[in-house]
Amino acid sequence: MARKTTRKKAAPNTMWGGRYALGPAEIMEKINASIGFDKKLYAQDIAGSAAHADMLVAQGILTAKDGRAIKQGLARVKDEIEQGKFKFSTKLEDIHFNVEQRLTDLIGPAGGRLHTARSRNDQVALDVRLWTRDAVDRLEGMLRDLQKALIDRAEEYASTIMPGFTHLQTAQPITFGHHLLAYVEMFGRDRSRLRDCRERMNESPLGAAALAGTPHRIDRRHTAKALGFDRPMANSLDAVSDRDYVVEFLGAASLCAVHLSRLAEEIVIWCSAPFRFIALSDAFTTGSSIMPQKRNPDAAELIRGKVGRIVGAFVALCTLLKGLPLTYGKDMQEDKEPLFDAADSIELCVAAMTGMIRDLEANPERMRAVASADYSVATDLADWLVRSVGLPFRQAHHATGALVGKAAAKGVDLDDLSLADMQAVEPRITRDVYKVLTVEASVAARRSYGGTAPANVVRAIRDARKRFLESPPPSSGEVPGRRRGS
Ligand code: ARG
């Protein structure tokens, strides 16, 4: 015989227990409740309820008196939560029931009228949407700050020469400013993805009710406008079951985390002893408990490490939604923890990266020395043979390879080879060639659009400031539901 589940003789849930004789099993309460994490949505829940109440009054569905009582009661509930005086109850499952119950305790039966023409299904869809919209705006603003830090440092290092790598092998000299600007472009695309998804998500699900709409004569445009949405969602079934915007936000956050991780990895490499390209500040390193000489780039390592949970959240949401029949399923309650965790994590990563970038100090002598080694100007020699001798590039490549081989055999740099040595490989080489064999000449020559020449970098910085910093950043910290200016 199957073991009987222990069952407390609890009273039925006050919110839906009309047809119930007994309350849920302890374990049912535990698996069902989301208040432990969805209390984070209290401000959105209350803003949504206030807008709903206003609309019900405007439509003559609620009296003005009840409307006033509801709004005052909601303000008081918000206060209690913010003062830490609110008693959250697991029995009341989630933030929606917790707020509604307390409202009814405070104002009496009028509290019970708030849920007219609404369901927790459109309510939660609204709350999560408002929360995600704020998260999008916050992240976009923070990425702008990171871009500003990168651009400022790029300006400082516009002509600082460092080795450019492919396969992490010295390839050609570049400037540190040019390298930092590459990330400015990536974070710019991340911001534009966030703006894209914000635009798509900015429709209101409120008024879809449980799934099918409502017989009450509501005005969905009213609540949509009050909450800063562009319009109400067109289909009630879609409105309660859509979490695309969470997936889109997590997708954008994942790619952003990947970008942060690439930069973090470079920072780890650059500040390692064999490289010594940069030094991180005391504020963004930690010491070792045993090795007194150590300065560990923990913040960069953690940024690299946190990608796992952010991409994990994206995968969790896709997996959660895949195969869910329309419309609402309780599975969807599982959207919140990954969303909240990923948003917290990416914000922490961007803030830490911004701090590291602002503080780091480059070591130009060391960067230049490494950039000059390993025949990094070989391509410049080949290009000279194309331009000055008229060799086809493939042949120039071949001749340069032979010259590199010759220099390597002697253990010297290319510009240490005598003209006679050079002419033994290609008789048409002249003394003129030595001019292109310095790292300074190499970077200065790369003036093609988007190239690394310091003159280009200076122009690119001006352009980046215009493209990325001149539009006002979205403001954060406003009342949820207010339209953001971005
Ligand atoms: N706590 C629920 C969630 O997060 C709220 C919606 C519940 N709706 C329902 N019909 N049980 O998804």
Tell me what you see in this structure.
The structure is a single chain. This protein is mainly alpha-helical and 486 residues long. It is 58% helix and 4% strand. The chain has 19 helices and six strands. It has helices at residues 26-32, 35-38, 42-58, 64-82, 95-107, 110-113, 120-156, 176-201, 220-226, 236-241, 244-270, 298-321, 336-359, 364-372, 378-389, 393-410, 419-425, 439-445, 454-469; strands spanning 161-166, 169-175, 203-204, 231-232, 278-279, 361-362. Strands 1-2 form a two-stranded antiparallel sheet. The chain is elongated, with a radius of gyration of 31 Å. The protein starts with 25 loop residues before the first helix and ends in a 17-residue tail after the last helix. Mean pLDDT is 94; it is low at 474-486. Bound molecules: arginine. Residues 34, 38, 94, 120-121, 124, 328, 330, 332-333 line the site of arginine.
